[in-house]
Design goal:
The C terminus is likely disordered. The protein has two domains: 238 residues, Aldolase class I (TIM Barrel, Alpha-Beta Barrel); 80 residues. The chain is an alpha/beta fold. 44% of the residues are buried. It is built from 14 helices and eleven strands. The two termini are 36 Å apart. Strands 3, 4, 5, 6, 7, 8, 9, 10 and 11 form a nine-stranded parallel beta sheet that branches. A two-stranded antiparallel ribbon has the order 1-2. Helices cover 43% and strands 12% of the residues. The longest helix is centred in the C-terminal third of the chain and has 18 residues.
Length: 334
């Protein structure tokens, strides 16, 4: 699959953009584990043009994580155009426009998925951003605003006509937020529309390699994105690639997986500071499949999510290893 001149290989699997999740360290780890392309946290156009430091920091990318996309969102065309030009100076491989974020503070103001209620404005923003920059522009959106307004099969060709290089669709409406099940049937219908000639990428509820394979085979999408299933499990990209490519590699060991979690913790602290870095990484630890199904784990989980130092976290990791995985030597997980 190619997005403009960016070759992502056959059946690419990408890391979805997620606020407070897809920082530079996590993006790089996911690339190393097999993600074909990674996306930054979304960047507010208004904050970017006001030069808000916490927003401008999100523009930092490293060559080792390429190909990488910077995602922007906003509700006014002029601000989105100016923001896109600023982003272009950071030299990402492409710019992605977020028309899919469902959270109230974004959508209720007309940005993100809120734009699904004003399609002419969405198309105007898309067209103007495409014209304003010299790198590929893509769009990520949802099926529609709610169950009575699933408009993606009509919207897709219109966005394509604005000049975008690829379209990613999350298989839920804005009203669903992240509840219920993602509906891939309309994603597949759009992909099979003879009018569509740009890549169509599917997103939503891909949590296993088998689901990734089935998404390609059943719906014919050009690529898929994995979001929440990567929390505390960046190795999911390796697992998916192993199945899709029939590599025959042995799965990562428990020790290897703990090493990746340790690296996430360490690099999060190094990037920010110990207190805020650990707050940032907690959602990964809370969601990691390494801890799912462990007997009598509730008390340990609570301790893990209340820790405030790396030393405490790593001591709990070692305790978990001894209790549940029979790894008695801490060096086994370094």
């Amino acid at each position: 699959m190619k997005i403009a001149n960016i070759d992502l290989g056959e059946r690419p699997v990408m890391l979805a953009p997620m606020e407070d999740v897809t920082d530079a360290s996590f993006r790089l780890i996911c690339r190393e584990q097999g993600a074909a392309m990674v996306y930054t946290e979304f960047v507010s156009a208004e904050a970017l043009i006001r030069n808000v430091s916490s927003t401008t920091r999100k523009l930092h990318i490293d060559d080792s994580e390429r190909p990488v996309a910077i995602q922007i969102y906003g509700r006014e065309a002029d601000a989105m155009v100016e923001a896109a030009r600023i982003v272009e100076e950071a030299q990402p491989d492409l710019i992605d426009i977020n028309f899919g974020c469902p959270v109230k503070k974004v959508a209720s103001k007309g940005a993100g998925a809120g734009m699904l209620r004003d399609i002419p404005k969405m198309l105007d923003i898309t067209r103007r951003v495409v014209q304003a920059v010299n790198i590929p522009v893509t769009v990520k959106t949802r099926l529609g605003w709610d169950a009575d307004n699933k408009i993606i099969t009509e919207l897709g060709p219109m966005l394509q006509d604005c000049g975008i290089a690829a379209l990613t669709i999350h298989g839920r409406t804005r009203a669903q937020m992240y509840t219920g099940s993602a509906d891939w049937s309309l994603i597949g219908e759009l992909k099979n529309d003879p009018r569509m000639h740009i890549p169509v990428i599917g997103n939503g509820d891909i949590t296993t390699p088998e689901q990734a394979r089935d998404a390609f085979e059943r719906f014919g999408v050009d690529g898929i994105m994995i979001g929440r299933a990567a929390f505390g499990a960046p190795w999911i990209f390796r697992d998916v690639r192993d199945l899709l490519d029939n590599t025959g590699r042995e799965p990562l060991s428990v020790a290897d997986k703990f090493a990746l979690l340790r690296r996430q913790v360490t690099e999060s602290v190094q990037r920010i500071d110990e207190y805020r870095g650990i707050l940032h990484i907690r959602r990964h630890l809370a969601a990691s499949p390494l801890f799912k199904g462990l007997p009598n784990f509730r008390e340990t989980r609570i301790r893990l999510l209340r820790t405030e130092t790396m030393e405490e976290i790593f001591n709990i990791f070692d305790e978990i290893n001894r209790r549940f995985f029979q790894l008695s030597d801490p060096s086994d997980v370094l």
